[in-house]
Amino acid sequence: MHVAPPTDNKLLAILAAENLAQVIPQLEHIDLPRGIWLGEYGKPIEHVYFLTDGIGSALLTSPEGHKAEAGVFGCDGYIPSSAVSGVEYNIYDIRMQIEGSGYRVPYEQFRQLMESSRGFSKVMIRAIEAFSVQLGYTALSNAVHDTNVRLARWLLMCHDRVKGDELPLTHDFIAMMLAVRRPSVTTALHVLEGNRFIYAERGRITMRDREALEEFASDAYGRPEAEWRRLMADFSGKELQISKG
């Protein structure tokens, strides 16, 4: 079975060689099946995860049990984000939505790296800034865009973080992530499929025309991705990509 190297995670890939050498001994490879919880709100952080494949969600849960996605992460970052500031408890529920794999480091070792390696800490802090921009634009999109556009944005973000063009997603799961009713998801998928942006079947969505889908999403998509590139370019000396567009 092929095991992806740690540098398939974009943050680990841009670390300077001496910083990466400090991190590698602390990493444990782990398979991450769909549905596994990487953290639960209010519970202690045990590990910090660096995905090399797959997608996870940071979820908010109301006191009545209603859930919605606050942010999405994959090989572009790490989770839980609160570990960067020394917070010892999860502030989100964190769940894998598309199976994948990655590496984890115990929380205490992560904190030691943050305190002992300036290069490592700078990359981690920049990554959280990029993630916070994504969270802000998710709130904006939820407020000003209709379900069709919000779904287009979300599919583009998922597509950015997977290998290939297939997304194994169900209507029910998408409805929970977007905090809308299932019929609204079905209607929105019909709109996107009718425009030949995607092909939707039971439990799977295939990207057909990404460029057209980006145009349809308009200002709902692109700014957080550009900010990620800007924040990370300082470390690599070249422009990096989070998106496939």
Core attributes:
245 residues; alpha+beta; Jelly Rolls; five-stranded antiparallel β-sheet; three-stranded antiparallel β-sheet
Write up what this structure looks like:
This is CRP-like cAMP-binding protein. InterPro entries: cNMP-bd_dom_sf (IPR018490), HTH_CRP (IPR012318), RmlC-like_jellyroll (IPR014710), WH-like_DNA-bd_sf (IPR036388), WH_DNA-bd_sf (IPR036390). The protein has 245 residues and is an alpha+beta fold. It has a domain at 6-121: Sandwich (Jelly Rolls), CATH 2.60.120. Helices cover 43% and strands 22% of the residues. The chain has nine helices and eight strands. The strands form two sheets. Strands 1, 2, 3, 4 and 5 form a five-stranded antiparallel sheet that branches. A three-stranded antiparallel sheet has the order 6-8-7. Strand 7 (198-201) and strand 8 form a beta hairpin. Helix 4 packs antiparallel against helix 9 (223-236) and helix 5 packs across helix 7.
What are the segments in which pLDDT stays under 50 over at least 5 consecutive residues? none
Q: CATH class of the domain at 6-121, anyone?
A: Mainly Beta
Q: Into which percentage range does the β-strand content fall?
A: 15-25%
Main beta-sheet strand count, sense and barrel state: 5 strands, antiparallel
CATH architecture of the domain at 6-121: Sandwich
Instruction: Report how far apart the termini are.
Output: 30 Å
GO molecular function: DNA binding
Keywords: DNA-binding, Transcription, Transcription regulation
Organism: Neorhizobium alkalisoli
Domain HTH crp-type: 150-216
